[in-house]
Amino acid sequence: MARDSSAPDAPTRLDAGPRAAVPVPVADLVDALRAYRNAESSMRGRSRDSMHLGRTDMTALRLMLHAGQAGAPLNAASLARRLEISTAATTVLIDRLEKSGHAERRRSRSDGRAIEIWPTATSDAEVRSTMGVLHERMMSVAGALTATECAVVQRFLASLGDAMTDLDLPVRAPSA
Q1: Helix (H, G, I), strand (E, B), or coil: what is residue 106?
Q2: How many whole angstroms separate alpha carbon 55 and alpha carbon 63?
Q3: Distance from C-alpha of 126 to C-alpha of 122, rounded to nearest angstrom
Q4: Pick from 103, 73, 109: which is nearest to 91 by CA?
Q5: Is 73 domain-assigned?
Q6: Is position 159 within any domain?
Q7: Are 47 and 58 in contact (CB under 8 A)?
Q8: How high is the mean pLDDT in each 10-residue block of the chain (176 residues)?
């Protein structure tokens, strides 16, 4: 974004990053984003803990819920691809989710030979009760913004997502 040369310099502060002066509004925005990310991470952790699930298990459950709602339930192979884990690890994960009452294997209605992985009704209700409250709160906060503010925030978050996705990090050699 071009800077208005007639505007007075924005106050700056040193950020914890590369020790360059960062305009206060930019530093405050990044701090707010970090605070949100920490709050979301904490909420997700509490949600996993309340359901006695690990991170990958909860992600699998979320993927199964979305797939089921879209009318395209997952099989073990597609779940493995989406989680980026081996099919063997996926089998163990599904077994664990079945044993804990969070998922079940069902024969496909369209292809009786295929097995689909579904969340149980209890897990679906538990996730909906937690996420429903979260969704309502998010919609309330977003609903308080003007259309212009929504467009700015959406553009900012999309650009930030692109910046994170396109980041190439060096691969460290395993230590001996």
Answers
A1: strand
A2: 12
A3: 6
A4: 103
A5: yes
A6: no
A7: yes
A8: 45 52 84 91 83 88 90 92 95 95 91 89 85 87 95 93 81 72
